UniProtKB/TrEMBL annotation:
Classification via InterPro entries: Coa3_CC
Transmembrane residue ranges: 17-34
Protein name: Cytochrome c oxidase assembly factor 3 mitochondrial coiled-coil domain-containing protein
Domain annotation Cytochrome c oxidase assembly factor 3 mitochondrial coiled-coil: ranges: 14-38
Length: 67
């Protein structure tokens, strides 16, 4: 067996492009499925934003604290 019979008419570079496209589609599919499954919130980014807001309040006394 020499690989996929349906791709036998393509050249080597074309086969590589087809495989790369398939793998890319798979990776994006897994990523979007995972984001949907976990709710799509980026908890790390939210924590970073909260930390930066708190740091700004501590360094600039003119800024009022967010409640």
């Amino acid at each position: 067996m020499s690989g996929f019979q349906g791709l036998s008419f393509l050249g080597p570079k074309s086969k590589n492009a087809v495989v790369a496209g398939g793998l890319t589609a798979f990776v994006f599919g897994v990523y979007f499925y995972t984001m949907k499954a976990v709710g799509g919130t980026d908890e790390l980014q939210m924590a970073i934003d909260k930390f930066e807001d708190q740091k700004q309040v501590e360094t600039d006394p003119k800024v009022t604290a967010k409640v």
